[in-house]
Design brief:
The complex is a heterodimer of chains A (114) and B (111). Chain A contains no helices and 11 strands. In chain A, the strands form 2 sheets. In chain A, strands 2, 4, 5, 6, 9, 10 and 11 form a 7-stranded mixed β-sheet that branches. Chain A has a 4-stranded antiparallel β-sheet with strand order 1-3-8-7, with no helix packed on it. Chain A is globular. Chain B has 111 residues and is an all-beta fold. Chain B contains no helices and 11 strands. At the A-B interface, β5 and β10 of A face β4, β5, β9 and β10 of B.
Chain lengths: 114, 111
């Protein structure tokens, strides 16, 4: 099992460009998440999907859109990139049981916006 | 909203014990987690504890939970160079399945 995979690993964009970050999981999990990690701020939730066909905003959704394409795949789109979106982006998946939520993380995408 | 706090840095000599601390504000927290992030990698779950427990031990790892003070700690015995990483505390609560993460503590091992 590959677990959670993310593409690309690295990306450099110019301000105003758009791009889509891809995420896929092979654990048959219902829930998937997108986080950004910035120094000294931990992980902040951008969007999540509790099941196929549903998406919800997290703590920092502005400037992003998501698509839960099917149960396996959850993509994150930046329509018009800004320097403030320079960050490391992590996708995660889980099967929530009660309030136990053990999340499995991908290796991350390091994005720089110039 | 919920808040989870950690100190940003900790340095420990190889062979000593490391203690990483975390405080949280949500009194309805049910599960508390410790994740490890090695350089250039994603987060991996190390261990977790249910809120009705005081302690959980797993080989070199000991988790202590003081629910009254909303304080969680992770003790790593006989710290090795491979323990160098960022350690994140996180919690979930009844009715809120999303994880709330702390800022992470960067553990540095001194040879």
């Amino acid at each position: 099992n590959a677990g959670v995979t993310q593409t690309p690993k690295f990306q450099v964009l110019k301000t105003g460009q758009s791009m889509t970050l891809q995420c896929a999981q092979d654990m048959n999990h219902n829930s998937m998440y997108w986080y950004r990690q910035d120094p000294g701020m931990g992980l902040r939730l951008i969007y999540y999907s509790a099941s196929e066909g549903t998406t919800d905003k997290g703590e920092v959704p502005n400037g992003y859109n998501v698509s839960r394409l099917n149960k396996r795949e959850f993509s994150l789109r930046l329509e018009s990139a800004a320097p403030s979106q320079t960050s490391v982006y992590f996708c995660a998946s889980s099967e929530v049981s009660g309030s136990h939520n053990e999340q499995f993380f991908g290796p991350g995408t390091r994005l720089t916006v110039l | 909203g919920e808040d989870v706090e950690q100190s940003l840095f900790l340095s420990v000599r190889e062979g000593d014990s490391s203690v990483i601390n975390c405080t949280y504000t949500d009194s309805s927290s049910t599960y508390l987690y410790w994740y490890k992030q090695e350089p250039g990698a994603g987060l991996q779950l190390l261990t977790y504890i249910f809120s009705n427990m005081d302690m959980k031990q797993d080989q070199r790892l000991t988790v202590l939970l003081n629910k009254k003070d909303k304080h969680l700690s992770l003790r790593i015995a006989d710290t090795q160079t491979g323990d160098s990483a960022i350690y994140f505390c996180a919690e979930t609560a009844l009715g809120n399945e999303k994880l709330t993460f702390g800022t992470g503590t960067r553990l540095t091992i001194i040879p």
